[in-house]
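User: Let's play a game. I give you a shape written as tokens, and you guess the letters that built it. Ready? Here's round one.
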């Protein structure tokens, strides 16, 4: 039974020992028993088992005294304690009793029931919490029971509540031994002996194999000796309590809190002086469980802080924190910045009036310093989590005292940190629902924040279901009454945050309503994802018809199949889904199903493990994989998990594309990180962007174009009755979620987008760039905090705190000066990042008001100062720069960890604060990996680290489980996840004596002046030449430009406008006034790209270098290096192209396609058809040396010996100091490589899994087509392969009319403002089956290439003519290329002939390319953005459009 008393709850149970023959009591009525009282607490840590160094010292205390018990009546027991002294463990310092220890002296009364158990306890008035809890623990030690000898289990009430308790009674001769062990996991209300758990990150309820952070165990041993009256009496009671802190799994130190309470019998007498338990007693009765301390008084009344003192302390801390930000002398040796965590602790103890007064104090003034203090305060306030901080945030937001951006930031953070949850809090914050529309961003943040608050209070059990449902109904009513889409979307997200109760029941009719907006239906469906597993039958009823219907939108079908798959479907239902997918024709839907099954079947994410076991059955029964470009609709999971370190992360991407344009429309990205049984981060981003490319293109591109430009093609398409494809209206949704709750929600439609003007955007950006800027920005983050209250067996407070705080600061100034030709900018920025993480175990000593702590802490400090001047001269095309560093400046990063043992506090109010700090005795193996003094820059760079810590990282990196989880499907993304895992391990797991520093230092002042210039050398239709120059000077005087070191680099770069050919001619020179190491180098490099079957890739470099002469510009005593290299396909490729070999050559895939780049492909003509001929198989490299320096001779000789030793033949010398000739042949048909160096060859066998480099289909082409960035339509011998891979045989396609003076539409831009149309001109002899001509309309102009009657003419050097417009001009492409407009670099289109007789048309207006062999192979390539706007034979759905034919009378 628990009753609220004025002070506490105590439980003393004097049980009758039932031996089966008689029962007895251990205390006789009217007798007094005196016991020696000894209590001790120790806080410490054990070093890792693999560490040879000792663990850190412990901190603790011992209290000694005497306990007196008097049985004054049958049902009354009086108890009184006298404290003799308190001793500190480390120093041995002893403190005798004083007035600060008076409260425990107050006696207390224990009232027993008729059967000998405790009914209630009564304390003296004004007995503080810390004293009553101490007395409860005394009573608890005396409580034991004996039903019989041996082992038995009973339910017993103790300081942790009602627990299942195991007894083992051993009845020895003249002695009874009792062992009592409560099973703390069964305790109610304080399971696991954890009385309070506070965390700002949600628990991972899906966890199934995680080691708990904190485990506790208590055990009591009793000794009973014979007594002449009662039979036995209690001679000894010994209770031990242990709390083990395993927060870092198998790494680092394991902390512990040990406590013991020992009672030894001293004497027994009659009651001569009764203990006063009648006067000044509290009128209320108390129960047994320990009472929690107040939030603003963690000492339990022992040393309550005055609010004025807290305000003074907080103000002082804010000032010290800002002073640290203003100083450039940072503690890289000890980067442990506790300023933010200490400030949060003090602010959390302040009441509303105090914290508001502090805010009013920091909000006064406009100085730089005061602004910084205000920034830090506003960053911390929403993260404190007390009721006072929430009310302050509410008031300053409602009073509109803050900018909207700051108010939004406060509202976003509030609900995730509150730990004083209550109905009062909900009622007081309900005003958030009434915020007006004058600040829409604040209104939205308030609506979403309040819904999260209501959900958290409900889940904490502070409001009942009826009240919660009232708020659900309010949000749904707001949704129904919302006049526009944006507000409906907002309240839907509010319902999503509420999540529980009838939320899903309210949303189901929305999804089922056939007249409801499709976007709203999709959002409503997506909102119920988290509840799908609990509503399997309802999900099936609503979403199965949507999934089954081919007429439903792709978005809704994707939502439906997702809900059906995650709602724990039965095997029969899963097979039904599988059968529908087997007959599915939409490749988007197929890809989504495949990726969902594959991702979940392979994931290690804990919350998907039940789905993994279910869906893995379908992994081997997936439909055929569609083309890679349909990735835009899929469900992708990239994750890793490491069970040893207890960390993991998951990146999930839900994507839904447009089935017509194949462009992504919906993207839902979810990123979760987990550690220590918590979700340390849950971020999600939802974007729906329909019509965005059209909106941007129409507003910023076509609006700036002359409308008459489109009229010609419009008339042609109108004559053919071609469909007009309207642009899609813009619909843009943007939602951000944190910890699974929506925090921001924005919507943009066509109307609001039209209000944005290009001129406004340019003016705003231009204004920002021109204006002087004052930067003073600070951010405070508390990304991880978990606190466990685990009282000791003495009843004193102890807790475990894990937390990470982050402080970033960006301060400085940017000044701008602009003229017509010159832009000058001065940048002076101070950037800092400070992270502090700790795992702290603490025990509070109420007798001396001391905190005994063992703290493993980790600091991560980054400091990067900028002092830069930039001058841009537009006329001369030069950028001048200047970098400065004052003397004795150190910047860089420091990453360290350590364990410290401390005892802190104020023993009495009259004494100075007590502080004792101890460090473990150990040698840290710090090794300097790297140090380099760069005299030319005036700085020194050094790297130091702890080798032992490096070895631990090496072990983790090579661990198989992490590798398997890190490298599964997508190597690039999984590698990034893998790198993030290492970073996560470093931040969450506080390493054992980490010590890594990367520092940049300079003793003297240093200044770097230089310039980068660009100059045009050549600009023709064939070739472009530009000169780049770089100069740099270093000096050690910030006021006088006296250069100590000079660098000058000049590069002349020539490139081709038609290919990737380039030539670089460069000079590099270094001179110095303080040393003799002046030198100079000259370089000439030329690259020529591959032309298939004509020449390979070639790269030639000549380098000349040597000491620079003081009188002559040319280097003296020069050394020369010549490099030549090539890479190309095998010699058989050319022979195959010219031969009549029918291998891999069909009517629909002739060898002529190899002349194209990239190769036009279709169902019958794939890249693999010619892979053996187009793969790069020959690599050659030749290096020649002349007059090389001595150091080169040394290393070339060593290399010569190494290569000679690897040869299977005896070699005297390879003369590698003169020449290195390297060849590598990679045969396609064999599993080996042939490698040769200067005639010594090796055959290396390998497994052919590496991707082959291809001469015709390089990586950029593959990525652009696989991603859907580019699409192509091709014609190969009369077979059209459309943009959607639909095949049309022109010889069998009856919808096309072939006649004289007629042209057939292959593809055209059928948008409202068409820019391009491509027509085929039938051959008089063969129609469109074997060869045809080409007419291309681009804007107001067009050109015509007539069909060639005799294909052999194309192989000769006869003219290849195109006719511009209506016979205005005839251009022979063999003589020159043609562009329109002529003699203008920014052309609209360009026509040329390649070395392979391929006609190339580049359309700069629509960014498309046509390749045509002038006979019967054509490839039309466009960007995927244009696909949905195209019509003609290349596009589906096929629309006859007057038989795709346009005929003219002439």
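Assistant: Ready! My guess for every position:
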């Amino acid at each position: 039974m628990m009753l609220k008393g004025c002070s506490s709850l105590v439980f003393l149970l004097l049980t009758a020992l039932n031996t089966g023959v008689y029962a007895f009591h251990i205390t006789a009525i009217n007798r007094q028993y005196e016991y020696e009282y000894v209590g001790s607490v120790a806080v410490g840590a054990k070093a890792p088992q693999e560490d040879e160094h000792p663990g850190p010292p412990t901190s603790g205390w011992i209290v000694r005294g005497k306990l007196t018990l008097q049985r004054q009546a049958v049902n009354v027991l009086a108890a009184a304690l006298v404290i003799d002294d308190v001793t500190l463990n480390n120093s041995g310092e002893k403190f005798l009793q004083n007035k600060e220890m008076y409260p425990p002296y107050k006696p207390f009364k224990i009232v027993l029931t008729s059967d000998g158990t405790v009914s209630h306890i009564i304390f003296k008035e004004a007995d503080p919490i810390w004293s009553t809890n101490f007395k409860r623990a005394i009573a608890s030690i005396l409580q034991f029971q004996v039903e019989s000898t041996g082992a038995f289990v009973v339910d017993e009430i103790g300081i942790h509540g009602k627990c299942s308790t195991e007894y083992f009674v051993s009845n020895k001769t003249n002695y009874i031994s009792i062992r009592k062990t409560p099973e703390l996991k069964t305790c109610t209300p304080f399971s696991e002996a954890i009385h309070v758990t506070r965390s700002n990150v949600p628990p991972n309820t899906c966890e199934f194999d995680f080691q708990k952070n904190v485990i506790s165990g208590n055990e009591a041993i009793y000794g009973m000796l014979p007594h002449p009256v009662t039979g036995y009496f209690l001679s000894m009671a010994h209770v031990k309590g242990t709390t083990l802190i395993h927060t870092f799994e198998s790494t680092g130190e394991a902390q512990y809190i040990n406590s013991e309470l020992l009672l030894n019998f001293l004497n027994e007498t009659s009651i001569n002086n009764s203990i006063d338990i009648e006067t000044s007693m509290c009128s209320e009765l108390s129960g047994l469980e320990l009472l929690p301390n107040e939030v603003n008084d963690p000492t339990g009344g022992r040393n309550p802080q005055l609010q004025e003192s807290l305000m003074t302390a907080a103000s002082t801390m804010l000032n010290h924190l800002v002073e640290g930000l203003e100083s450039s002398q940072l503690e890289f040796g000890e980067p442990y910045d506790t300023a933010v965590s200490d400030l949060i602790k003090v602010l959390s103890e302040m009441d509303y009036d105090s914290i508001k007064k502090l805010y009013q104090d920091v909000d006064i003034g406009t100085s730089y310093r005061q602004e910084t203090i205000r920034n830090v305060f506003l960053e911390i306030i929403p993260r404190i989590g007390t009721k006072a901080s929430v009310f302050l945030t509410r008031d300053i937001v409602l009073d509109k005292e803050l900018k909207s951006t700051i108010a939004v930031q406060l509202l976003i953070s509030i609900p995730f940190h509150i730990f004083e949850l209550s109905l009062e809090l909900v009622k007081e914050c309900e005003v958030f629902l009434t915020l007006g529309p004058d600040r829409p961003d604040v209104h939205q943040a308030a609506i979403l924040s309040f819904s999260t608050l209501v959900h958290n209070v409900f889940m904490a059990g502070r409001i009942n279901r009826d009240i919660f449902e009232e708020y659900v109904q309010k949000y749904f009513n707001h949704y129904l009454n919302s006049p526009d889409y944006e507000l409906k979307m907002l309240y839907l997200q509010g319902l999503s945050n509420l999540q529980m109760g009838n939320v899903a029941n309210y949303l189901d009719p929305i999804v089922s309503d056939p007249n409801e907006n499709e976007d709203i239906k999709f959002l409503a469906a997506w909102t119920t994802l988290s509840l799908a597993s609990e509503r399997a039958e309802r999900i099936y009823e609503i979403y199965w018809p949507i999934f089954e219907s081919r007429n439903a939108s792709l978005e809704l079908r994707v939502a439906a199949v997702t809900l059906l798959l995650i709602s724990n479907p039965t095997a029969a239902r899963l097979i039904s889904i599988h059968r529908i997918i087997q007959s599915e024709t939409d490749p988007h839907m197929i890809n989504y199903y495949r990726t969902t099954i594959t991702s979940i079947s392979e994931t290690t994410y804990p919350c998907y493990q039940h789905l993994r076991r279910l869906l893995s059955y379908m992994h081997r029964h997936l439909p055929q994989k569609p083309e890679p470009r349909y990735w835009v609709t899929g469900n992708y999971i990239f994750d890793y998990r490491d069970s040893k370190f207890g960390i993991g992360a998951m990146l999930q991407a839900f994507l839904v594309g447009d089935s017509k344009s194949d462009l992504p429309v919906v993207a839902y990205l979810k990123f979760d990180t987990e550690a220590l049984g918590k979700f340390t981060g849950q971020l999600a981003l939802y974007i729906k962007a329909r019509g965005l490319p059209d909106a941007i293109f129409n507003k910023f591109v076509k609006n700036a174009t002359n409308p008459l430009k489109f009229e010609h093609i419009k008339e042609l398409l109108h004559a053919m009755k071609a469909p007009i494809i309207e642009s899609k209206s813009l619909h843009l949704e943007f939602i951000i979620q944190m910890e699974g709750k929506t925090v921001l929600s924005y919507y943009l439609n066509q109307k609001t987008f039209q209000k944005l003007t290009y001129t406004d955007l340019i003016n705003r950006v231009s204004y920002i760039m021109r204006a002087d800027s004052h930067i003073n920005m600070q951010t405070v983050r508390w990304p991880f905090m978990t606190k466990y209250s685990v009282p000791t067996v003495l009843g004193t407070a102890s807790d475990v705190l894990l937390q990470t705080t982050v402080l970033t600061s960006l301060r400085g100034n940017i000044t701008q000066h602009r003229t017509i030709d010159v832009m000058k900018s001065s940048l002076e920025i101070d950037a800092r990042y400070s992270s502090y993480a700790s795992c702290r175990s603490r025990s509070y000593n109420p007798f001396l008001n001391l905190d005994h702590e063992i703290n493993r802490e980790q600091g991560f400090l980054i400091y990067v100062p900028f002092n830069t001047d930039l001058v841009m001269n537009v006329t001369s095309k030069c950028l001048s720069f200047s970098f400065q560093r004052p003397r004795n400046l150190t910047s860089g990063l420091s990453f360290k960890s350590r364990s410290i043992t401390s005892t802190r506090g104020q023993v009495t109010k009259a004494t100075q604060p007590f502080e004792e700090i101890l460090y473990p005795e150990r040698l840290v193996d710090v090794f300097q990996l790297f140090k380099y003094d760069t005299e030319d820059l005036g700085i020194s760079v050094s790297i130091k680290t702890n080798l032992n810590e490096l070895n631990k990282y090496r072990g983790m990196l090579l661990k198989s489980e992490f590798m398997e989880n890190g490298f599964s499907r997508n190597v690039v993304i999984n590698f990034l996840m893998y790198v993030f895992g290492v970073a996560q391990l470093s931040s969450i797991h506080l390493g054992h004596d980490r010590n890594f520093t990367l520092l940049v230092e300079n003793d003297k002042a240093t200044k770097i002046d230089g310039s980068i210039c660009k100059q045009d050398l050549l600009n023709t239709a064939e070739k472009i030449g530009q000169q780049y120059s770089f100069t740099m000077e270093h000096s050690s005087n910030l006021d006088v430009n006296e250069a100590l070191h000079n660098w000058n680099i000049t590069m002349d770069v020539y490139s081709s406008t038609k290919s990737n050919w380039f030539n670089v001619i460069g000079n590099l020179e270094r001179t110095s006034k303080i040393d003799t190491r002046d030198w100079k180098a000259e370089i000439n490099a030329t690259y020529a790209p591959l032309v298939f079957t004509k020449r390979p890739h070639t790269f030639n470099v000549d380098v000349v270098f040597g000491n620079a002469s003081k009188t002559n510009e040319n280097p003296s005593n020069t050394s020369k290096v010549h490099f030549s290299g090539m890479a190309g396909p095998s010699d058989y490729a050319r022979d195959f192209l010219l031969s009549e070999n029918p291998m891999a050559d069909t009517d629909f895939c002739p060898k002529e396609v190899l002349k194209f780049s990239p190769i036009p492909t279709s169902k019958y003509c794939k890249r693999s058809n010619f892979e053996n001929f187009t793969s790069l198989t020959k690599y050659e490299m030749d290096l020649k040396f002349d007059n090389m320096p001595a150091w080169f001779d040394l290393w070339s000789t060593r290399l010569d010996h190494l290569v000679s030793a690897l040869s299977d033949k005896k070699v005297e010398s390879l003369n590698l100091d003169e020449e290195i000739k390297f060849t590598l042949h990679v045969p396609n048909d064999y599993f080996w490589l042939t490698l040769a160096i200067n005639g010594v060859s090796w055959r290396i066998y390998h497994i052919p899994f590496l991707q082959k480099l291809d001469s015709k289909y390089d990586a950029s082409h593959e990525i652009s087509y696989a991603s859907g960035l580019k699409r192509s339509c091709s014609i190969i011998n009369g077979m059209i392969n459309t943009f959607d891979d639909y095949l049309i045989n022109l010889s069998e396609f009856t919808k096309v009319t072939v006649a004289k003076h007629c042209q057939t539409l292959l593809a055209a831009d059928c948008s409202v403002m068409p820019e391009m149309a491509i027509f085929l001109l039938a051959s008089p002899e063969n129609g469109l089956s074997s060869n045809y001509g080409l007419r291309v309309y681009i804007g107001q102009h067009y050109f015509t290439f007539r069909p060639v009657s005799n294909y052999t003419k194309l192989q000769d050097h006869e003219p290849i003519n195109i006719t511009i417009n209506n016979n205005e001009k005839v251009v022979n492409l063999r003589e020159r290329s043609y562009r329109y407009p002529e003699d203008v670099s920014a052309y609209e289109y360009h026509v040329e002939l390649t070395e392979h007789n391929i006609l190339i048309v580049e359309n700069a207006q629509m960014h498309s390319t046509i390749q045509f062999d002038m006979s019967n192979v054509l490839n039309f390539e466009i960007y995927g953005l244009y696909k949905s706007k195209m019509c003609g034979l290349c596009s589906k759905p096929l629309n006859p459009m007057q038989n795709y034919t346009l005929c003219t009378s002439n």
